[in-house]
Design goal:
The chain is mainly beta. The chain has 2 helices and 21 strands. Helices cover 6% and strands 34% of the residues. The N terminus is likely disordered. This is Neprosin PEP catalytic domain-containing protein.
Length: 373
């Protein structure tokens, strides 16, 4: 099996759309229907307990040793790591924000001991995954119907990264068609040798909650409450209350890449599934908007162009990267690129380091519109 190209996407708030829809209905053949049913039997493991969430999807509590990750051929004898064991590292402290934490995951009823929450995959999810997989992850080349507004660290010889972190305020932009993301990522290689892990939140115009996170090969879930594909229950309102999530992707000494939300270790991608990802060439933060073939793109972030008023614009704050020496730092002048491919639709307003409470901060987003293909 070829693991040279590995794109791993961990999104915590999902409403998937599909470019395969016709008047809101995806037409599939009998053969496709049977194939979807076969895949679902393989993906959805027998639960110890099932929980119907208020958002309409089902979370299954699966024996931690029988989760889908261990169907991966490289993880047959994998020993689960319950928590990361990071080496001692230098950290630049960042104070509390004026924003409130967003809530998601199983708030009232955690899975029983020895089990982990896995969002149940549906046929609609699998159909959506097919269209999503060609849109969300490319970070190095121009992709039709996809527009970015990101801050990305420059690739420098002998300078590598083993982590990326930041706090993102969460909005629910009105997305009638397409999909809109706020994300951070670590990335190594390009084109057919691209390895990348991405995390953040998203919303879309299909209003179908779905989850393709479980399809990321080899992700080992360890937390009993927060799971991949969790729906976020409280979001920011322009000129109103602001809510945020703190996210972190970091590699520990044994090569496992951990995904953390507000100091909760959700799980990790084991080193065994990679062959070209001991360190990352670059990291980045920002927004992504995916349109349908008509070229009309959805709003990004809050849907408002960024300015100095963070009460109505989307922002990343306390953004930092961790270098190969284990030190945390942020994007200094002449060390990063601002990538905006459609400035009439989306912008970035980078403020740099603005104090210990906010750290390195920037606003991003915009109303979208006719942004081209």
């Amino acid at each position: 099996m070829d693991f040279e190209r590995m794109i791993l996407i961990v999104v915590l708030c999902l409403c998937l759309t599909s470019i395969y829809q016709v008047n809101g209905t995806r037409i599939i053949s009998k053969e496709e229907e049977l194939e979807l049913e076969r895949q679902l039997k393989l993906i959805n493991k027998p639960p110890v307990k099932s929980i119907q969430t208020e958002f309409g999807h089902i979370v299954d509590c699966i024996d931690i040793n029988k989760q889908l990750a261990f169907d991966h051929p490289m993880l047959k004898d994998h020993k689960i790591q319950e928590r990361p064991h990071f080496s001692k590292r230098t950290t630049k402290n960042v104070g509390l924000s004026r924003n409130r934490p967003s809530m998601f995951g199983l708030q009232q009823d955690a899975c029983p001991s020895g089990t982990v929450p896995i969002r149940r995959t549906t046929k609609a999810d699998l159909i959506a995954i097919r269209s999503m997989s060609n849109n969300i992850y490319p970070q190095t080349t121009k992709v039709p119907n996809m527009h970015r507004a990101v801050i990305q660290m420059r690739t420098i010889e002998n300078h590598r990264y083993i982590g990326v972190k930041g706090n993102i305020n969460v909005y629910n932009p009105v997305v009638k068609e397409g999909s809109s993301y706020a994300e951070m990522y670590v990335m190594n290689g390009a084109d057919e040798k691209l390895n990348s892990i991405t995390t953040g939140w998203m919303t879309d115009g299909a209003q179908k909650t779905g989850c393709f996170n479980i399809r990321c090969p080899g992700f080992v879930q360890v937390d009993k409450r927060v799971y991949l594909g969790s729906a976020i229950s409280n979001v920011s309102i322009p000129n109103g209350p602001q809510f945020e999530i703190g996210l972190y992707i970091s590699k520990e000494e044994d090569g496992n890449w951990w995904v953390t939300k507000d100091d909760i270790n959700i799980g990790y991608f084991p080193a065994a599934i990679f062959n070209n990802f001991t360190e990352a060439e670059t990291v980045g933060w920002g927004g992504l908007a995916v349109s349908l073939p008509n070229g009309i793109s959805p709003p990004m972030g809050s849907g408002i162009f960024p300015d100095d008023n963070y009460s109505h614009t989307s922002q990343f704050r306390a953004i930092q990267y961790r270098n190969s020496s284990g030190e945390l730092d942020g994007p200094h002048e002449n060390t990063y690129d601002t990538i905006i491919d459609s400035p009439d639709c989306y912008l970035i307003d980078f403020h740099g380091y603005i104090g210990e409470h906010e750290g390195y901060t920037f606003g991003f987003g915009g109303p979208g519109g006719d942004c081209g293909i």
